[in-house]
């Protein structure tokens, strides 16, 4: 009996141990699954985060008079570098509405325009945005460019049609019906024969003049503005200007009437100057001596300027005293002397 109970107890202990091992393995597998799931989620989030946080593409709408050769997926460029593509082209009344999708991060000026560019006759056309952004307000997402800020190239058919009209107008059924155009070409060839270098030099000089005028356009415009202001001032003071012109005309008339007298006066002045020149030439030594003496006299006067000032200050009183001492009845000057002034000092 005891032996059978020992075997049963061992069986129960073995079963309990096996169950415990199974529970531990299950818990380890659960923790491993959770860890694996967390790593996978972290990788997915790190991979998707730049996509989620990156700015989205921008849209731009432009209105053209025509959009020949512009289709969805046509390039949109700045300075020839693609920054997006055309997403839709549709008619809009008398205009063509072109919707574009632009890459984010490329700034454009708020007053940007759009131009359809034709690189060559066989190359695909694209939309060029201009000018380049150099600071200031930027073009917002979803903005529109009106038709007055867009341009399209002249079509080859239109160019050929205009050329055909010109040639027909100059042809035998037009201006050259009586040989006028042929005569002009013949005469022009005769006149221009051998003058190619001169004409080339003239064209070069004209180009340099245009370049100089372009470099000095600010000064030129300033001068034109100042001239405009001066003209406006003259117009505002028309009465004074007319009066000044009338006075100048009167003065000119007086001078014209007295031109004989002026001529005689100038002739006499010339003769007088000639006499003075001869006198100075003949009496140069004496004149120099007199000038030297005059300089000495001037020097003495300068040295005695205090005494002269005192004399000039006392002269009015002295003359007054002389007039007071004059006896008109007897014709004498009465005076009184102080002999004590001459007494010998002790």
Give structural notes.
- The chain is α/β, with parallel strands linked by helices.
- Among the domains are: 14-54; 58-153, no CATH class; 264-315.
- The chain is 59% helix and 14% strand.
- It has nine helices and ten strands.
- The chain has helices at residues 2-53, 156-170, 180-192, 196-215, 217-236, 238-257, 259-282, 284-303, 305-325, and strands spanning 58-64, 75-78, 81-92, 95-102, 113-117, 126-130, 144-145, 150-151, 326-327, 332-333.
- The strands form two sheets. It has an eight-stranded mixed beta sheet, with no helix packed on it.
- The longest helix is centred in the N-terminal third of the chain and has 52 residues, at 2-53.
- The model has no long low-confidence stretch (mean pLDDT 80).
Structure described in brief:
The chain is α/β, with parallel strands linked by helices. The chain is built from 9 helices and 10 strands.
């Amino acid at each position: 009996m005891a032996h059978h109970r020992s075997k049963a107890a061992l069986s129960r202990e073995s079963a309990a141990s096996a169950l415990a091992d199974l529970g531990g393995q299950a818990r380890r597998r659960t923790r491993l699954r959770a860890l694996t799931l967390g790593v996978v989620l972290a990788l997915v989030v790190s991979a998707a985060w730049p996509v989620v946080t990156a700015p989205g593409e921008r849209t731009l709408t432009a209105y053209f008079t025509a959009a020949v050769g512009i289709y969805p997926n046509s390039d949109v460029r700045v300075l020839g570098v693609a920054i997006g593509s055309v997403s839709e082209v549709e008619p809009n009344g008398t205009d063509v509405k072109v919707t574009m999708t632009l890459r984010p991060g490329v700034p454009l000026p708020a007053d940007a325009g759009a131009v359809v560019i034709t690189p060559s006759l066989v190359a695909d056309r694209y939309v060029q945005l201009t000018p380049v952004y150099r600071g200031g307000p930027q073009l917002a997402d979803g903005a529109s460019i009106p038709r007055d800020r867009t341009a399209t190239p002249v079509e080859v058919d239109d160019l050929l049609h205009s050329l055909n009209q010109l040639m027909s107008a100059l042809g035998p059924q037009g201006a050259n019906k009586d040989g006028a155009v042929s005569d002009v070409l013949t005469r022009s060839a005769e006149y221009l024969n051998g003058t190619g270098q001169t004409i080339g030099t003239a064209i070069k000089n004209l180009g340099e003049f245009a370049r100089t005028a372009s470099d000095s356009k600010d000064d030129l415009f300033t001068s034109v503005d100042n001239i405009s202001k001066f003209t406006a001032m003259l117009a505002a003071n028309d009465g004074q200007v007319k009066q000044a012109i009338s006075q100048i005309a009167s003065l000119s008339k007086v001078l014209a009437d007295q031109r004989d007298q002026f001529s005689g006066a100038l002739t006499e002045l010339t003769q007088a100057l000639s006499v003075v020149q001869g006198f100075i030439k003949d009496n140069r030594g004496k004149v120099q001596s007199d000038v030297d003496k005059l300089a000495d006299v001037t020097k003495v006067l300068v040295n005695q300027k205090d005494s002269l000032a005192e004399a000039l200050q006392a002269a009015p009183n002295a003359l007054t005293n002389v007039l007071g001492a004059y006896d008109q009845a007897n014709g004498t000057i009465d005076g009184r002397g102080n002999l004590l002034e001459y007494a010998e000092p002790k």
